[in-house]
Fold this sequence. Notes:
Blueprint: H1 14-19, H2 22-42, H3 48-59, H4 65-75, H5 78-89, H6 103-139, E1 144-149, E2 152-158, H7 159-184, E3 186-187, H8 206-213, E4 217-218, H9 229-255, E5 263-264, H10 285-298, H11 301-306, H12 319-346, E6 348-349, H13 351-359, H14 367-376, H15 381-392, H16 400-405, H17 408-411, H18 416-422, H19 432-449
Amino acid sequence: MNINPIDEGRYGSLEMRRLFSKKFKYQTYIEIEKELVIALFEAGEIARHDVDIIIQKAEHYDPDLKAISDIESSTRHEVAAVIKHFSSLCGEAGKYVHFGATSSDILDTTTAIQLKKASTLLERLLTELCELACNHAFEHQDLIMIGRTHGQQALPITLGFKFANWADELSRHLIRFRQIKSRLFVGKLAGAVGASAAIETDDISIESRVMQRLGITAGNISTQIVHRDRIAEFICFSALLASSLDNIATEIRNLQRTEIDELREPFGLAHQIGSSTMPHKRNPVLCENICSLARLLRGMVIPAMENMVSWHERDLANSANERFIIPQACLLLEEILQKAVTIFKDISINRDSIERNLREFGQKYMAEAVMLELIKHGVDRQVAYHELRSLSHLQDSDEFEMLVKNNLLITNTLSISIIEELLKPKNYIGHCAEKAILVAQNVLNEIKNG
Length: 450
């Protein structure tokens, strides 16, 4: 019986769900045990015959989940149950399985392997999203639209400038992601309390060799567990990235509002339904999903931070919630990224609405341009500001151009031809287009040079 929507397959790809399945987890446990046995053989601790048996059984290990569950019902210890099940398949050689290790060695190393594989999927999506944002920045570098602050019209910008801002923010997350990898993909094989006392060999490099073969690294030192600041950093990163995507999705949702209607997320016109009762609805459900899942992901930061606190060399206070937060952070972040990629690939841009919104309120948003030109021509700044403020707030200010052209202070200072040029949005977008191109190119270079 499935309760969690992740288990129902609603969120996360098949591959990401596979990485956190019991079967993959248990197979990874045994892969680690195999590499430990090989390292012990190389150190002269185990005979070749026993190693060959364990390797052969490990490479063909298909965990019997029912049998392991039955064992765990009595042992009340998951790792011990898996080890007991696998050891029974190895005959006499089974006594060397888990030799010198503790359950945290297996658990934390498995987590590192899962996170490395999951990160490959996440980074691929984040990179694609950055590239899509850059493509939109290039394509729409000159498409003038109204910029808004506090939900009100502010000054004209370009749509490419908006996408470039998103590309720049997303690229910082890509840089962060790449930076934390060396701190995240860390396992351990140091036994109880981290002292490596149970491995009776002078070869201190066994741990690092095993980790290298597994494709991860060993920490400089550990207690009985890998220090939880590493996982907390990943969860915090995931929450940061999800929050940026929440911000982007919220902006698209606002720009899809009926009265604005400048951007629209993809919608399956043939079959998709917005409302079960209102046939006309075209709801921004992808964006809303992003915002909703981001809220859930942010909530995982607190337990991740609290898991950094441990009694002495190890306790179990982190274990239960990590069964939730680590796989769910990966699955939810992947889902959020995938939805964002889907939106950026097929986003609809309503140029008619963009143009309408530039005209609709009489271009009051050009008041700053007129004010600054008056100042340049000798008018006191406070006088110019209050004159334009008064015109903008008049009841008939939707006729802003007419009001400006009929104002004596303005027309005594500026010619009609200058006023007309000042009121054209294309003349007051600053360096929006140049910045869009520059930022998009820099982001693509960052992706390329990695």
